[in-house]
Write a structure and sequence with these properties.
Length: 438
Amino acid sequence: MSQDYNNPAFKKLLQKLQEESWQLELLISGFAIFGLFTAFPHIKVAAMAAENDEKIYSFIVLIVAGISCAILIFNLLLHVILRGLWIGALGLRYVSGDIDYEELNYSEKFTKYLKKKVGSFDRYIARLENYCSIIFAISFLLIFYVLAFIFTIIAIVVVVKLTLDNDSLDDTLKLWLGVPLIIFLSTGMLITFLDFLTLGWLKKKKWLSRIYFPIYWVFSKITLSFLYRPLVYNFLDNKFGRRISYALVPIYIIILIGTSLNYKVSNYFNGDNASSSIIANSINYEDSLDEDDFIERVAISSKVIDQNYVKVFMALNDNFDDYVFRFNEGLKPENDIRGLDSDIVILNTLSRSKRDSLRRVYIKTLNEIFTVRIDSVDYDSEFILGENFKKQKGFETYVSLKDLTEGKHLLKVLRKRIRKKDTQLVRYANIPFWYYPN
């Protein structure tokens, strides 16, 4: 029956399902809200971890997922509230019927005004029904929009990996093939997004539509829009639906601005201040980290050290390879695998002994680059790869403090860099601490 959509029996079934869909809407909304509230903190933590580890692609995808979760939570909560109001209105109508303006016994002026502005109670129920149905449809349509954005980002990354980052291609071919494709995808993404925001304005202009059609066709494949295109156009051809969509956009902007507001208590010390000789940021002390916090650069074990040693932990990120390669070009591989890559290994060209040998040279070079200094004295340190209690990978070492005097001190991690063929020592992190041994 479902194959013959013109069959009267099928249309009758659809009409019946439409009338009873509110029950499924409430059921799905309840499960979805529970799942979104459960997933949102995990997405937030994963996004912070990706930002700290400088995994830009993962960070972008997670930020988009987090924003989408917030929008879905808002939409579905609004849907549940309006659906509850609709059910309440239905119950009230069963008890008292329509609004009897004569029974209210208001003056003629107010009676005419209320009849015009409030109208029939049945009209109010019908409008609530329309609001609920459209908001529910928009909520799940947003999931496909988010997936479309992610697929577009993935397409750009794949093009970069296959062209600009592909060492097997000639440099000239990389530029002539990769750059035009990236420009086309980036520009096409912006144009498609503009068409989305304007509810299809580019499709309405005759000469623009001819230019836009090839872009639309390509991005319809990339974003898998054929899965939800009928839902989009059925939504856009409804005047009431367009008005709702126009109203929701400024609401999202207001919510975004509202969540960014914060109260400033000082002209000089606000926000996230980096640690220095006069500032102690909790992000630089492992025992002060919140559940959602990750080490950004360097952290020590505690703000107050009561033992004769201190742990220093440097969080691993993409930059460490570059630091090492500048001082030991022999470690730079022919194929740099940093960034998005698959865990599936077809063929490992390095033997285990060769790989271990290169790792030892890497660590040796790293220890030549980084220096731990307390106040004005350099201390012996030997960084090795480790993992903190949050499963965050990095390089750690333990520095002896047995000859240090009690009181406040400043631990510095310094990094060598080559600038115009000269080797310089620059600050990588400053962390104050207090030393009071037992």
